[in-house]
Amino acid sequence: MLYKVLISYKVIIAGHFPCITVTWLGASIQLQKAAKMLDSGAARATRFLWRYPTARLILLFYLVFVHLFLMYLLHRLQEQADIFSDREVAESMGLANHTLP
Questions:
Q1: Nearest Cα to 35, choosing from 5, 63, 56, 14?
Q2: What is the pLDDT of residue 88?
Q3: In whole angstroms, how far apart are CA 101 and each of 67, 84, 87, 88, 96?
């Protein structure tokens, strides 16, 4: 089911930042509340990071570390996958079907 979306643009006079208001026509109230909660949480996080530059640096290092770790993990798993044959991988996953080529 497709929902119609009504988008209106407002300018907040105090901050001079454009604000986009999205109104979901036909969407459930629960979905609207979840979207508002997500939006308010993102706004709080943005204000927190704006006020505390140390927190910004910690978040930056955390994100860099997570990305480097995932790249290492994927590289390591790819090397491991190159070593095993398809049958060995299936058996390690508990899919010991002997009709595989």
A1: 5
A2: 76
A3: 36, 14, 8, 12, 12
- 5, 23 in Cβ contact below 8 A? yes
Cα radius of gyration rounded to whole Å, the chain: 24
pTM of the model: 0.50
What the block records as the tokens of 78 is 């790819």
Render pLDDT for 30-51 as a digit per residue (tens, 0 to 9).
898 999 999 999 999 999 999 9
Q: Which amino acid is at 81?
A: A
**What are the residue boundaries of the structural domains of the chain, listed by start?**
1-51, 52-101
**What is the Cα–Cα distance from 33 to 39, expressed in whole angstroms?**
10
